[in-house]
Structure formats: structure tokens, C-alpha cells
Amino acid sequence: MKIVRDGKTRVLSAKMEAGTKEFNYSYNGPEIRIPPFHVPEINIPPMDFSGFGDHRATLGISAADLTPQLAQYFGVKQGKGTLISEVTKSGAADKAGLKAGDVIVQVDGQPISGVEELRDTLNDNFTGVTRKVSLTIVRDHHEQTVSVDLTRSPAGEKRTSSAAGQNYDQALAQLRAQLQAEVAKQKQQMHGEWQSQLQEQMKSLKDQLKQMQDLRVTLHQEGEI
């Protein structure tokens, strides 16, 4: 296989081995027909998500938490941070000169352990429309500081987003209750059908046993002298 490491193409070989474990399973019991499960039809109520989430400050990046191996590879001594995998064109990060492969380790001097902490820190105490933050990043095994201008929507749009969030939570609770009721209904129906099938099979087995007993009596009588 070919890989790219440190900007150079390398060829590696790997030996594939077959597994040694075997699993044999046989079942000779009576055949039970499983009733079909009907996927419930769920009606999703209309929701207004205008402005939802716009009030949060965004850098304009795609990122992931830093693993110990990635920390070693990128030269992050702290062992924690947020690895940038993609930068949105014309976003705040792009305008500040950030690029894929940079690792964000601090925001305004505060250590960052991962994506969620980075997101929360950028929005903490952000009451206006604009905010300037100082990001400490690791690039090419060296730390440097980058200044970033963040923006977010006004408070009015934030209230709209909050209302949309409440609407979403209510709709989600309604869908969950509807799905649980449908599953319970079908579970009860399937249980009844299974019981009916088992009763029919038990009756069939009893009839077969009776036939065998009658045959045994007949053979015994024919063998008497």
C-alpha cells in the first residue's frame, strides 16, 4: 500500500492472515414464523429554525480532538488541543491565517483540551457582536500567537434562535413519545401472534405423540400370542 508521510510517498507491505476460530451452530427445533414488524409512520410537525445557532461565535473551521499520537506527531508538548482539519474560505480563521494542520492549544491564555472546550471558551462572556481573541497554536512543532476577529448575530436574533431551540425540543419529545407508543403497540401485537403460533405447534406435537402411542398399542396387540 502507498501512504503519504511528511510530504513524501512511501510504500508499505502488510501480511494478511486468516482467522483460526470456527463457529458452528445448528438448531433442530420447531420452525417459528416471526411476524413482520411494521415501521411506524411518524408525522414531523413543522418547525421554524430561522436564525437557529447563528448567535454562536464561529471560527470557520472543521476540527477534532487531539489524540496522544497526533500530539506527538505535530509536536504538541501539552498533549491536548484542537486539530484543524479544514478552514472555511473567508471565515474568521481564514482571515487570521490559520490553516489545516494547525493545533489550537490556548484561547486568551487559557488551555484548550478539545473541540467542545474551544467552542465554549469562544462564546464565554461574549455579549456583543464582535470580539477579538488571541489563539495560541502549534505549527511545524513551534508555538505562535494569532489574533482572530470573531463576530456573531445581535441579541434579537439570539432570542429567535432560543425560541427555535425550544420548538425543536418540544417536537423531539413529541416524536419520542409517539415512537414509544407505536413500539409498545406492535410489541403487544407480535407477542399475541407468537403465542398463537406456539399454541398451534404444541397442539400439532401432542397429536403426533398420540398417534405414536396408538401405534405402539397396536403393535403390542399384534405381537401377543
Description:
This protein has 225 residues and is an alpha+beta fold. It has one domain (45-215): Pdz3 Domain (Roll). Helix content is 40%, strand content 20%. It has helices spanning 68-74, 92-96, 115-123, 155-222; strands at 2-5, 8-11, 61-65, 82-87, 103-107, 110-111, 130-139, 142-151. The termini are far apart.
Give the helices and strands, then pairings.
Elements: E1 2-5, E2 8-11, E3 61-65, H1 68-74, E4 82-87, H2 92-96, E5 103-107, E6 110-111, H3 115-123, E7 130-139, E8 142-151, H4 155-222
Antiparallel strand pairs: 1-2, 3-4, 4-5, 5-6, 5-7, 7-8
Question: At the first level of CATH, what is the class?
Answer: Mainly Beta
Helix/strand structural class: alpha+beta
| Element order: H for helix, E for strand | EEEHEHEEHEEH
Give me the number of helical elements: 4
Q: For the terminal residues, how far apart are their CA atoms?
A: 85 Å
Largest sheet: 6 strands, antiparallel
Assign a percent range to the helix content: 25-40%
CATH architecture: Roll
Oligomer: single chain
Question: Summarize this, please?
Answer:
Helices cover 40% and strands 20% of the residues.
What would the keywords be for this entry?
single chain; Pdz3 Domain; 225 residues; alpha+beta; two-stranded antiparallel sheet; 6-stranded antiparallel sheet; 40% helix
